[in-house]
Design brief:
about 100 residues, four-stranded antiparallel β-sheet, 1 helix, about 10% helix
Length: about 100
């Protein structure tokens, strides 16, 4: 079972959450001036790293709030979760100390 720590509700089972892709993607400042290729890249092109990755999640069967997670795609461990507006955790630091997740 994978436990995900909601920043508001605490640790809960993964079945309560929905994944919504890569986090911190900046929308173009002037969408009307962006080419079709640039707009397509903004909408569809995402990173698919092997390792630590910042993601957007929602606690869909709980408080229904959005949050961010720092997850390692190699072992599916969530190393930290944080609220929108909070600074992202440093992925170079020891992420396991901030907010342990369990992939048992």
């Amino acid at each position: 079972m994978l436990l995900i720590t909601c920043p508001w509700c605490g640790a809960r089972d993964q079945s309560e959450f929905s994944y919504h892709g890569e986090a911190h993607i900046a929308r173009p400042e002037r969408p009307a001036q962006v080419s079709d290729a640039q707009w397509g890249a903004y909408l569809f092109m995402r990173k698919n790293p092997k390792g630590l990755h910042r993601e957007r999640w929602v606690h869909s069967h709980g408080c229904r709030r959005w949050f961010y997670a720092l997850r390692d795609t190699r072992d599916d461990r969530i190393h930290a979760t944080y609220r929108p507006g909070d600074p992202p955790p440093d992925s170079a630091a020891d992420p396991g100390a901030a907010n342990p997740g369990s992939a048992t």
